[in-house]
Amino acid sequence: MTRRHPDHLPSRPTWRCSTCGIAWPCSPAKLRLLVEYRKDRTALLIYLATLETEAAEHLAKLGGSPPKNLAERFILWARAR
Ligand SMILES: [Zn+2]
Q: C-alpha dihedral over 29, 24, 77, 60, to 10 degrees?
């Protein structure tokens, strides 16, 4: 079996999904992260916060002003409900 697509990883510095091209994290990426970190939600939130910081820097360099909804996009979806 060939792996045609990478696992919905973020492209840097645009932070779009390398597989579907939408703003990362896309739904498949979120699902994968939730499975990977199912036993440690805190570690997931720390990981996402790190990525958000990195994305904010990259996007600021690209576009001038960083998007305001980054925290929501990167972190809020992963909070326990
Ligand atoms: Zn994707």
A: 150
Distance 36 CA to ligand 1 centre (A): 16
Q: Is there a domain that residue 60 lies in?
A: yes
Enclosing domain of residue 38: 28-78
Instruction: For residue 17, tell me if it sits in a domain.
Output: no
Q: Which two tokens mark 10?
A: 């973020």
- Structural domains in the chain (count): 1
CA 53–ligand 1 middle distance (angstroms): 20
pLDDT tens per residue across span 4-37: 555 899 999 999 999 999 999 999 999 999 999 9
